[in-house]
Amino acid sequence: MRAYELQPKDGFDALTLVERAAPAVGPTDVRVRVRAVSLNFRDLTMVKGAKKRKAPVVPASDGAGEVIEVGAQVTRLKVGDRVAASFFPTWQSGELSDFHHARALGGGQDGMLAEEVVLPEAAWVAIPSRLSFEAAATLPCAGVTAYHALFEAAQIRPGDVVVVQGTGGVSTFGLQLARAAGARVVVTSSSEAKRERARALGAEHTLDYKADPTWGESTRKWTGGRGADVVIEVGGPGTFDQSVAALRYGGTMSILGVLTGTRGEVNTYGVFHKALRVHGVYVGSVAMFEALLRAIEAHRIEPVIDRTFGFTDAQAAYAHLQSGAHFGKVVIRVD
């Protein structure tokens, strides 16, 4: 089968198309013909760290396809079923642990950017028939992360105010899921075209964070001084203080991104002064994935795909993601 490997090279040349032997299927395993893979910011960081790896790894955590073989002890899935893989294949429910973390797809073990993938039955989640493989491939990381940020780390209710930063995959899913739950959504973006698209998806208020660097205070003013209930924080230290400013007393910051880095000075006074909850979110469990799918189906949410690339154009797909020009998800069709 064909697969991509991250090899010790510079830049996107680390993404190397190779021929590999198809993995064997054990008694509790399921073999899936991958039809689509979506990319996340994490995938860019994996490319940058490729030279430090001790061995090549198949990249990308998010993919969907159809079952083509099952092990003798498999009972839940059958040949022909349409499925997507969980970002953390062993994290079924409960708390994240070192064990689960070490087995994340495309990092601790081979990921989805291959023609065929074999994983234990418990790692696969059935996808709705109405969703294309491309749409389903966007869900395991970005969709689950947004669900976790809104409904596990926080418990949003109708009328709550939710702030999402930017219009990437997690933020776009956050906008769609929050609106479906009856929340009012504020979106920050420096692009007027992207702000317009966000409004078309249901954003009630948008802010240009470059023209208005104190957008947190502006958000609080827009709420009549009360503040937002939840902020989906994807920036990291560079946006942390404005998220603190935007939140109401007792509000929740779901922090899950490092777009501005992992270290920096932040306003800890604002956190305890306003009795904020700062909740780290790292994707989610299989149980959260299944809950997301129920929400997606109940509200007929259609994932937003910015652009789809062919399998041999994987490097171009990564470059497009790195450009920041995308709105929603970048997908690779495994054709």
Which descriptors would you attach to this protein?
single chain, about 325 residues, alpha/beta, 6-stranded parallel β-sheet, about 30% helix, globular
Structure characterization notes:
The protein has eleven helices and 15 strands. The chain has 335 residues and is α/β, with parallel strands linked by helices. The strands form three sheets. Strands 3, 4, 5, 6, 7, 14 and 15 form a seven-stranded mixed β-sheet that branches. Strands 10-9-8-11-12-13 form a six-stranded parallel β-sheet, sandwiched between helices. Strand 9, helix 6 and strand 10 form a beta-alpha-beta unit. It is globular, with a radius of gyration of 20 Å. The two termini are 12 Å apart. The model has no long low-confidence stretch (mean pLDDT 96).
Query: Could you tell me the number of beta strands?
Result: 15
Shape: globular
Helix content: 25-40%
Instruction: Return the structural class.
Output: alpha/beta
Described by strand count, sense and barrel closure, the largest sheet is: 7 strands, mixed
Which sequence of SSEs, written as H and E, runs from N to C?
EEEHEEHEEHHEHEHEHEHEHEHEHE
Uncertain segments of ≥5 residues (pLDDT<50)?
none
Span between N and C termini? 12 Å
Strand content: 25-35%
List the total number of helices. Answer: 11
**What does the average pLDDT come to?**
96
Radius of gyration: 20 Å
